[in-house]
Amino acid sequence: MTAGRTGGRLTALRRRAPDPVETFDARAAYAAHGAELYRFALRQLGDEGAAQDVVQEVFLRAWRAADSYDPQLAGLRTWLFAIARNVVVDEARRFAVRPWQRALTDDAGADVPVDAGLDERVVDAWVVEEALARLGPDHRTAIVQTHLRGRPHGEVAAELGIPVGTLRSRVFYGLKALRLALEEMGVEP
User: Fold this and answer.
1) Are residues 111 and 142 in the same domain?
2) Does residue 124 form part of some domain?
3) At 100, which CATH number?
4) Is the pLDDT reported for residue 112 higher than 60?
5) pLDDT-derived band of residue 117, with 50, 70 and 90 as boundaries?
6) Do 59 and 101 have their domain in common?
7) Measured over all CA atoms, what is the biggest interatomic distance in the chain, rounded to whole angstroms?
8) Average pLDDT, the chain
9) How far is CA 156 from CA 5, 13, 72, 151, 177, in A?
10) 28-32, 118-122, 182-186 — which is least confidently predicted?
11) What average pLDDT does range 171-176 have in this prediction?
12) Which of 82, 44, 39 is nearest to 62 (CA)?
C-alpha cells in the first residue's frame, strides 16, 4: 500500500469521526436536564438567583469541557450532575467565605426548604453506580459486599469460595480502579 492511499484513508476516517465539541448540543442538554439541575441547585442552596447561576455555570463548564465528555464513561445526565455538584460546592463555599453576598442576592427562594443531604446522596449514588459499572465483576462484587453493604471480609470470602487475602486484594485494587474511574468521569474528591 502506498503512502498516498494510507493518507487518504486516514483523512476519510478523520472526516467521519465527529468533533466532540460539535456533538455536545448544549440546547438539547439544557432542554433535557436544565430544569432538574435548577431544582437540584435550588434545594441545595435555597436561593433562586444562586440556583440560576449554578445552572448557567454547569452548562458553561460542560460546553468548555465537551471534548472530554465520553458517553462510554458516563451518561450525559450523570456528567452534568457531577459538574453541578462541584459548582454547588463552589457556590456554598463562596457564600461561607462572604456571607454578605447571600443577603445581596434575590431571596425569593428563602422559603424553599433546603434538604441538601437528600439531593447530594442521590447524585453521589448515580456517580458511584456509573463508576462501579466500569469495574470488573470480581472487583465490583468485593467492593459492594465489603464497603457498601458492610459485610465482614471473612464472611464474603467464604461465600465467594476464595481466601480472605484474595478478597482483600480485590478490594484494594478495586478501590484503586474505582478512584481512577471517578477521576475519568471528572468527579473531584
Assistant:
1) no
2) no
3) 1.10.1740
4) no
5) low
6) yes
7) 72
8) 76
9) 57, 48, 31, 7, 20
10) 118-122
11) 93
12) 82
For residue 16, give every residue at least 6 positions away whose Cβ sits within 8 Å of its Cβ, in sequence order, or none: none
Q: Determine whether 69 is exposed, middle or buried from the number of CB atoms within 10 Å of its CB (0-12, 13-18, 19+).
A: buried
What string of DSSP letters covers the chain?
--HHHHHHHHHHHHHHSPPHHHH--HHHHHHHHHHHHHHHHHHHH--HHHHHHHHHHHHHHHHHTGGG--TTTS-HHHHHHHHHHHHHHHHHHHHHH-HHHHHHS-GGGTTSPP-HHHHHHHHHHHHHHHHHHTS-HHHHHHHIIIIIS---HHHHHHHHTS-HHHHHHHHHHHHHHHHHHHHHTT---
Whether the predicted pLDDT of 70 surpasses 90: no
- CATH number for position 185: 1.10.10.10
Q: Which residue has the cell 465537551?
A: 66
